[in-house]
Amino acid sequence: MLVTRQPVLRRFWYAVMPMHRLDAGPQPFRLLGEDIVLWKTADGTPAAVRDRCCHRTAKLSKGFVEGGHIVCGYHGWTYDCSGACVKIPQAADQPVPPGAKVPAYHCQERFGYAWVALDEPLRDLPLPEEESLGWRRVHQFDETWRTGALRLMENSFDSAHFAFVHKGTFGQADQHKPQHFSITETDYGFEARMVITINNPPESHRITGSTEPTTERRFSNQWHLPFLRRLGLVYPSGVQHVIYTCATPIDDERIQLIQWLYRNDTEADCPADLINDWDTRVVMEDKEILETVNADAPVDVGRRDEQSMASDRPGLIMRKRLLALLQAHGEAEAHGWPRNAQPREEVAAC
Ligand code: FES
Ligand code: CO
Prior knowledge:
Blueprint: E1 14-18, E2 27-31, E3 34-40, E4 46-50, E5 64-66, E6 69-71, E7 78-79, E8 85-87, E9 104-110, E10 113-117, H1 129-133, E11 136-145, H2 149-155, H3 162-165, E12 180-185, E13 189-199, H4 205-208, E14 214-224, E15 228-234, E16 240-249, E17 255-263, H5 272-290, H6 313-328, H7 344-349
Antiparallel strand pairs: 1-10, 2-3, 3-4, 4-9, 5-6, 6-7, 7-8, 9-10, 11-17, 12-13, 13-14, 14-15, 15-16, 16-17
Bound molecules: FE2/S2 (inorganic) cluster and cobalt (II) ion.
Cobalt (II) ion binds at residues 155, 161, 165-166, 286.
Protein name: Aromatic ring-hydroxylating dioxygenase subunit alpha
Domain Rieske: 13-116
GO molecular function, one term: 2 iron, 2 sulfur cluster binding
């Protein structure tokens, strides 16, 4: 599925950057192939418009913020959060022509991040109950990966890679199957529950609250259409650790990985740097392999050039639900599969 060519994907909220980055002035971002610019308005809320001035097409992200409006750095045309040009310095005594505007997008701050929906959102953002419970929030990642959003999502639910990709951290090289695995489909996507025994090396002892060489983990892993997951787990210490991962689609080749977590303990119990150092090691193991896969993951399972196994079920459900989403909005899957990709029947006949 080429995400930039599926208009319905424009109707979801995506985390695009931590809010504090906007303190430095307008910031560019490419979302689903569209170049946008974000800035902080006078009341501190974020705004997003197309990163292209309607005068002579300069990038507004090269401009600056003045009085809560964004000002083009070329000739100073000034835009409000609705994308309307509110000032043309060279003709300040005349009304601004009605056509002087740029497309504006839905934009809001949540959980310390600026979120954008390019078109009318189909659903609200999930509200983490951990916010209302007052758990501490730890920012983890904000970085660009050369992979597809669906690839990252299905990886986040793929227990079969732990023994291979993560054998240097928490994975047990000889344990290839989760002990228990169940999936319940929901309106937002699905919840996968699994129980798995994983390694607990000394670097993770303060995170898990256990000095045992292995610990049993009970995961509740939710997938929210299209590219957000919530991973909740309870450590042997009783501490709860809840990770939110956003695979924000930049274009058909890249994502912005944005991740934060909640814990119901304190910084003194387990410093955020220690958690992030450990998770960086884990996540870099995923990155190394995910940047080798074909970024374009097919959602139409009747036309895929990939074989599957039982543990791929979460990813297959994602594909089924994404295909249903496209079809419900009158879209066919756009794809850029390799030239040798054949309908499955034809492959079977070879
Ligand atoms: Fe933006 Fe001229 S190009 S003001
Ligand atoms: Co992994």
